[in-house]
Amino acid sequence: MIPLKTDKEIEMMKEGGKILSTVMDVLLSHSKEGVVLSDLDKLAESEIRKRGAEPSFQKVPGYKYSICACINEVIVHGIPNEYVICPGDIVGIDCGVFYKGFHTDSSWSIRVPTGANQSPNKIDHFLDIGKKALFKGIAQVKEGNYIYDISRAIETTVVPAGYSVSNLLIGHGVGRELHEDPEVPGMRVGKRLKTPKIVSGMVLAVEVIYAMGKSNIAYRKNDEWTIITKDGTLSGLFEATVAVSSHGSLVLTKTYA
User: Which residues are recorded as binding a divalent metal cation 2 (predicted)?
Assistant: First the structure.
C-alpha cells in the first residue's frame, strides 16, 4: 500500500527538505581535493543536528553514518571512510534528514576540479546527462501520470546518450519511513497502466542511478554496503524528493543547474 500524505504533512516535509538542502549545500561546497570522506560525514551530522533534525541514514539498521559517499565507480551506498578526495574524482553525496516525523532524501554528484585551467570533458557531459534526466523525471511527477512516465523520462535521456541506467537500484516513496512504496525505477518496467498512478499525497524520491558502462553491479569485497559498477566504469547519482499536493507538485529538496 502506498502511504499518502496530507497537505499539512507535506508542509512539514517541506521544512525538512529545506534543512536537507542547506546541509547538501555545505557538503557539496566542502567536497574538494584533500578532504577526507569521514570528515564530510561528521560535518553532515553536525549540520543536521544543529538545525533540530536527525540523520535519516542512521535510522537504517546496521548503518551508522549520516551520508553515503560515492566515489567514481561506487554507484550507491558508499561508506564515508578515510578516502581522500582527489582531483578529477566524481563525488556523489547522498543524504537524508528526519524532521518532525518525516524523512526527505537527496543526492548529487560533482566532478572535483583538476586545476585552474580545467575545461569541460566527458565526465562533465556524463554528469550533465544525469541532471537532465532528473529534471525530466521530476517534470513527470504530477497527478494523473503514472510511475512509468518518470521511468521513461529517465531512461530515454540516459540511454540514448550512450550510458546505462541501473535496473536494480531505484527510487522510492518517502515519508514516515525512508523507503516506502511505490518503487520508482529509472527504466521502464511493464506496461504504463500497470504501474502506480500518481495521485495527490504521494511523495517520491526520484533517483537517477546510472553508469558510463554497463548496468551490472556488484558489492565491494568485505563490505556489506558499498555497491560498485561491475565493469569498474564511472557512475553518478542524482536525487530529489518531490511531493504531489492539492496545490500541485512541489520539489522539496534543492536541485542544481
Answer: 105, 172, 207, 239
- Check the annotation: does 143 bind a ligand: no
Neighbouring residues of 195: CB distance < 8 A, sequence distance ≥ 6: 146, 147, 148, 151, 182, 189
**CA–CA distances in Å: residue 4 to residues 174, 175, 249:** 10, 9, 14
Whether 128 has a binding-site annotation, put simply, is: no
Instruction: With H, G, I as helix, E, B as strand and everything else as coil, classify residue 149.
Output: helix
Burial label for 48, CB within 10 Å (0-12, 13-18, 19+), is: buried
Q: Say if residues 48 and 97 touch (Cβ distance below 8 Å).
A: yes
Query: Is 77 assigned a ligand-binding role in the annotation?
Result: yes
Q: How many helices (H) and strands (E) in the chain?
A: 4, 13
Q: Enumerate residues 6+ apart whose C-beta is below 8 A from 158.
A: 129, 130, 133, 164, 165, 186, 208, 210
Say whether 172 counts as a known binding-site residue: yes
Q: Which domains does the chain possess?
A: 7-251 (3.90.230.10)
| Three cell numbers written together for 196 | 502506480
* Helix (H) / strand (E) containing 248: strand 248-251
Cβ–Cβ under 8 Å, residues 200 and 246: yes
List pLDDT tens digits, range 56-107.
999 999 999 999 999 999 999 999 999 999 999 999 999 999 999 999 999 9
30 marked as part of a ligand binding site: no
DSSP class of residue 17? H
DSSP 3-state of 109: strand
User: pTM score, two decimals?
Assistant: 0.96
